[in-house]
Amino acid sequence: MINNFIRYLAYEKRYSAHTLTSYRNDLSQFEEFLQTTLPDSSVISASHADIRAWIISLVEEKLQPKSINRKIATLRSFYKFLLKREEISEDPTVRVKSLKTPKSLPHFVQEKELIQLLDQFPFPANFSGSRDRLVLEMLYATGIRLAELLELKTYDVNLYEGTIRVLGKRNKERAIPLPSSIQAVIKNYLLEKEKLFGSNTPPYLILTDKGEQGYPMFIYRLVKKYLGSFTSSDKQSPHVLRHTFATHLLDKGADLNAVKDLLGHTSLAATQVYTHNSLEKLRKIFEQAHPKA
User: Fold this and answer.
1) Rounded-to-integer distance, Cα 142 and Cα 165, Å
2) How is the beta sheet containing 157-158 ordered, strand by strand?
3) CA-to-CA distance for 87 and 81, rounded, in angstroms?
4) What are the φ/ψ torsions at residue 177 (nearest 5 degrees)?
């Protein structure tokens, strides 16, 4: 039934390959737990107590509450699917509660550090150098997710209109404006790509040195390499650049709803987490400038 569920998510819900992998891994881990710990149970016949036992084991393994909650969400979707297909008569996740997660502020890179990296670093004047710079510029200038960057096709980039067309979570499409500075970076990269590989390459915008579609770990290593040399941020990942994009926009007075749409968030609450840093900045200005502060 796990395979049927994954096919349902892929073809009816049209979830991304990355999301499908996460769902499959969560369910496989739960199935393995049942087989080794509760052999009389199965994924189909699992009870509330079985699921609770798995959650406890994950807590004992010191898995982060956020990760555990994602696995709980996977089980909820899976048993909702089974209930709808009449494979089960009761949903064992009904009384399962998510764990409380400590609120953590998003990590971001200081504006001065990032501008210094993008404007002053001597990127090699070849395909690899232009590609590396483009990856950093795209993540920071557009705020797109790692998966969205990897799935971006060359024809999704409209240099005439100065926009990119991004296919986000649950296949929701959005257009994001491109600053004029990054348009020049894209043009240079496309020339280098054509010079090295010709026209016989995959349609994806970001390619590896071998001319293949980029993959998550490739981008992680690339971003970490550059941020590690130029920033004081504790975390150096593609998602940190997405956080940085949102934080810097709000610091400059951008409308919260506009930032929400650019990020592809479905809820304003998901975007509001970035306002904390802006409020802290305003508080410091207030304390420095107001006579009664």
Assistant:
1) 11
2) 157-158, 163-167, 173-177
3) 9
4) -70, 145
Structure tokens belonging to residue 201: 């390459």
Can you give the C-alpha Rg of the chain in angstroms? Answer: 22
User: Residue written as tokens 């479905």?
Assistant: 266
Cβ within 8 Å of residue 285, ≥6 positions away: none
What DSSP state is assigned to residue 257? Answer: H
pTM above 0.70, yes or no: no
What are the tens digits of pLDDT across the range 121-168?
Answer: 999 999 999 999 999 999 999 999 999 999 999 999 999 999 999 988
Task: Indicate the residue type of 32.
Answer: E
Distances (CA, A) of 56 to 33, 51, 150: 12, 9, 36
Residue 160 DSSP code: T
Residues labelled as active-site residues: 145, 169, 239, 242, 265, 274
Residue 246, both tokens: 């949102």
Q: For residue 239, which of 104, 107, 65, 69 has the smallest C-alpha distance?
A: 107
Query: Residues near 167 by Cβ (< 8 Å), separated by ≥ 6?
Result: 148, 151, 173
- Return the biggest CA–CA distance within the chain: 71
Q: What is the DSSP letter of 153?
A: B
Say which residues have a Cβ less than 8 Å from residue 74's Cβ, sequence separation at least 6. Answer: 22, 23, 26, 27
